[in-house]
Amino acid sequence: MAHEIDRRRVLNISAGAVALAGLAGLGTAVPAAAATEESGFPPVPGMLGDRRANEFWFRFDDVTLFHRVPEVTAAFAAIFDKLGGNAFKLLMNTWLEMSKTDGYPGNFTEFVRPIADPLRTLSQVQLGVMDTYYHHDDPRLVTAFASFGQGILFDPRRADVGAEVHTMNGNPPTGYHLWHVFLRSMMFLGIDRHRWARLDPLIAYAWALQSIAKPKQREVNPPLPRETVAALARSWLCRTPERLDVDYHSPVAPADSRP
């Protein structure tokens, strides 16, 4: 029953985005200055794409990656202490192996239980950043993740780290896979389980878009056709975390568009 509730709430996010904007902005790269007054954020010369989404991803990456806040640094240190120096690889490989067994998710839950405290910290930080820019189940999150996956958020403030485009690095972008594994770990341990269950399909939706768009990180990328963006939204935003467990065994988003 809980999974059905989560599924309906994710569908409501998607439906709300379509109703509010008719998918406008999900497949376009436009100067952010046009949305500055409405968003309340100061203009950034040369910025492209949704202004709020740019600000969200700028802050999200800043506190979790480029200039990590102390609690995130401490959380990762604790994970490495428990799982070793190759913690992320071990976590990914263990999930890939265990998620195909009859003992899943119980076996994987026990594997990640020793890192419950740092995972709780990471969840609080990530959701805290998200809540600063979007309210719970905000339909604008669809635009934020769709723009991220297509690579149409161009932010000159990121020149210092050599990645002006807010998107996942790598080709294929396997960071989505690791993020899913972290989310599943949190869900199984009861850490903000319902929040992450609703956000998991949004992240996968961005993965599906990026698998097709293949955006560059230092150039202005063209958006995908709006029809493609809309079709992927209909397919991916209704997927449950259980279904995504299957999808993420592929290095790129499966071409099968059925939910």
Write the layout of secondary structure elements.
Blueprint: H1 2-21, H2 36-39, H3 51-66, H4 70-83, H5 87-98, H6 106-112, H7 116-133, H8 140-150, H9 175-188, H10 193-213, H11 226-236, H12 241-247
Helix pairs in contact: 1-10, 3-7, 3-8, 4-5, 4-7, 5-6, 5-9, 8-10, 9-10, 10-11
Oligomer: single chain
Spatial extent as radius of gyration: 18 Å
Helix content: 55-70%
* Backbone structural class: mainly alpha
Order of helices and strands: HHHHHHHHHHHH
What fraction of the residues are assigned to beta strands by DSSP? under 5%
List the total number of helices: 12
N-to-C CA distance: 19 Å
Number of strands: 0
Mean pLDDT comes to 89
Main sheet overview: none
Low-confidence stretches: 1-5, 14-22
The total domain count is: 1
Overall shape: it is globular
